[in-house]
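Quick start: read one record
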Amino acid sequence: MCLILFALHHHPHYPLVLAANRDEFYSRPARAAGYWPEHPQLLAGQDLTAGGTWLGITRQGRFAALTNVREPEQPPPPDALSRGQLVRDYLLGESTAPDYLAALPMSRFPGFNLLCGSVDALHYASNRHSGRQALPAGLHGISNGGLNEPWPKV
């Protein structure tokens, strides 16, 4: 995912308004958003190479999305895990967002920005920018830099 723009508790009728665009790695095979046959509570696209996803929501209201942090000169960790696993595992798990984020092996992933929680409370984590935090109400944007950084796409 290259761009996520969202309004959290900013509109009087909609607790979360989100616009997102995935425009990296066009050659990487993916399945369009839909309910996963193996996990019918999960609505998301699916990375057909590593099995993860970049944005999804469950019937129970769990939500997660991520962007990659652009690091063209830095190789991934030798034992790197797929970033799409971050979103998939949160959505299929039962941990609260703060507990999930606190337990992440951050150094095992290439650079990422992760949103997770629900429309009631979203949390942000990055292994390259500003750690972990609960997000305040307002307008936010994430691209390949950190949360609310003045990145060209944001």
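The helical segments are 84-92, 97-102.
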